[in-house]
Design goal:
This protein has 477 residues and is of the alpha/beta class. 36% of the residues lie in helices and 13% in strands. The protein folds into 2 domains: 301 residues, Alpha/Beta hydrolase fold, catalytic domain (Rossmann fold), CATH 3.40.50; 170 residues, no CATH class. Strand 8, helix 16 and strand 9 form a beta-alpha-beta unit.
């Protein structure tokens, strides 16, 4: 996107006919005309304290919110909270129809977390009118991280608790009539649960999609993400070996281990893939149901000297993820925000070295680049507050939707989390519905099950069992 267009989109998203930045009411966004998915949506920018815990501070930050009015008679509202923590609300735009079909009688509000998208960011280089838009490019990386070291107090304002207080104020301000629901996916589930620890929060129902593990769960926390992915990947291969035709009599577990050791880098297959390892690549494919189903064939082909199926799958994965961004001005993930929040409170092994992570992963067939990126981070970070590793003790009626083949937020971690929530909230209804074979992000990867259960939930209807099968995410070889 060229800079002129970025500036045009910035102006249309944040202002219209002289509307002031920090306006607290929704107005028509001309940017909606640029994208069919955003047609009829409305925009607002709301001023928030930069430091909610420092009332003496006069510094503020703007939070961008997009509203999709209910497609039928509005009977309430729902707030969609994106993952990350670096993702903006634009990650929902390309599948907004999934949510509109599940919540036809609710106004849908989608905020950009502080630090993401069209909201105030950690670095000036992440603003919509910068060279790369919200993504850092070229020399912006150095200047951004340099500014973080120069202004540590500014960086420390980008905490989960401050983001939760932003959300509390937004939900109060735009409460409207009818019931108010909250939906969070991945990191959005963590932010939603932090919100519910705050006083004066009124939510009628909560939907948690791909629930994160407990913050003090040593088995499934982020620095052990590769072990989580490897377990899910090996479950897939075991199921293949138990199938009549899938493994063709080969020991796929042994083959995958051997190949992953051989291809620490895929440079020999394609020079452009120097930074990729086979285990990281296979871990990525676990997130995409139709490509996940090809993994056994990819391994057998590579074992026989044919790398083309792997290269084709990686190309298809790139295309798949590219389709989520229809050139939305605020689309993207903030790497600085990810690193700040992760280093501050989502890494239970802050002293782990990159060499430690590399050694741990030598025996893994599937892995994630995240643990290596988390190691040895020296950026400024905020101090954990009293909400760390705590849970709300006054939960609304809650629906948890989780895939049993989730390679990011492990199913067993979600089960432990749900059990603790139930223990602390014996008077609340908290139901876990398992999505058979589904990976991360149920609304995306098991849309039919998502619609069925979410629609029943907001209508206060009986749920049809504790397990759902969606053909979109079924494993088949």
């Amino acid at each position: 996107m060229n800079k002129t267009l970025k500036l045009a989109l910035l102006g249309s998203a944040l202002t219209l006919a002289g509307i002031k930045a920090f306006a607290d009411d929704f107005k028509t966004c001309t940017a909606a005309q640029q994208h069919p998915a955003l047609e009829n949506s409305l925009c607002a920018n709301v001023a928030m304290p930069l430091h909610h815990d420092k009332p003496e501070s006069k510094e503020s930050i703007e939070i961008f919110v997009r509203k999709f009015p209910a497609q039928q008679n509005a009977e309430g509202s729902i707030w969609l909270i994106a993952g990350g923590p670096g993702e903006s609300g634009a990650s929902f735009y390309s599948i907004i129809d999934h949510y509109q079909s599940a919540f036809p009688n609710l106004d849908i509000y989608i905020p950009d977390h502080r630090g993401t998208g069209a909201s105030g960011t950690i670095c000036e280089e992440e603003q919509l009118d910068s060279e790369g838009g919200v993504a850092l490019v070229g020399a912006e990386w150095g200047s951004c991280f340099g500014s973080m070291y120069a202004k540590p107090d500014h960086v420390k304002a980008f905490s989960i608790s401050n983001a939760a207080q932003d959300l509390r104020q937004l939900m109060k301000q735009f409460r409207g009539s009818g019931k108010q629901y909250l939906y969070g996916v991945s990191y959005g589930t963590q932010l939603s649960l932090r919100l519910l620890q705050l006083p004066e929060v009124n939510v009628d129902g909560l939907i948690l999609d791909s629930l994160v593990p407990l913050q003090d769960d040593q088995d499934y926390e982020l620095s052990r993400r590769s072990f989580v992915i490897d377990e899910v990947g090996k479950t897939l291969l075991t199921r293949c070996e138990q199938s009549n035709d899938c493994s063709k009599g080969n020991n796929l577990l042994a083959i995958s281990k051997s190949l992953s050791a051989q291809y620490r880098s895929l440079e020999s297959l394609d020079p452009k893939l120097k930074a990729l390892s086979l285990s990281n690549s296979l871990g990525t494919l676990l997130d995409i149901p139709h490509l996940r189903n090809e993994i056994p064939s990819i391994l057998l082909a590579l074992h026989n000297g044919n790398s083309q199926p792997l290269l084709d799958a990686l190309k298809n994965a790139q295309t798949y993820y590219g389709e989520f961004n229809e050139d939305y001005a605020n689309f993207g993930s903030s790497v600085p925000l990810v690193q700040v929040i992760t280093a501050a409170e989502n890494n239970l092994r802050p002293n782990a070295k990159k060499s430690d992570i590399a050694q741990e992963e030598t025996e893994l067939s599937f892995s994630s680049p995240l643990p290596m990126l988390m190691a040895e981070v020296t950026l400024p970070r905020y101090t954990r507050d009293h909400y760390f590793a705590q849970l709300p003790k006054k939960m609304p009626r809650t629906l948890v939707l989780h895939g049993d083949m989730d390679p990011k937020t492990h199913y067993k971690g979600a089960q432990k989390h749900v059990q603790k929530l139930k223990h602390l909230n014996k008077q609340s209804t908290i139901e876990l519905v398992t999505m058979s074979d589904a990976p991360h992000f149920v609304a995306l990867n098991a849309p039919n099950c998502f619609k069925e259960y979410s629609l029943a939930f907001v209508n206060n209807a009986e749920l049809k069992g504790s397990r759902c099968v969606d053909q979109t995410s079924r494993i088949h070889f």
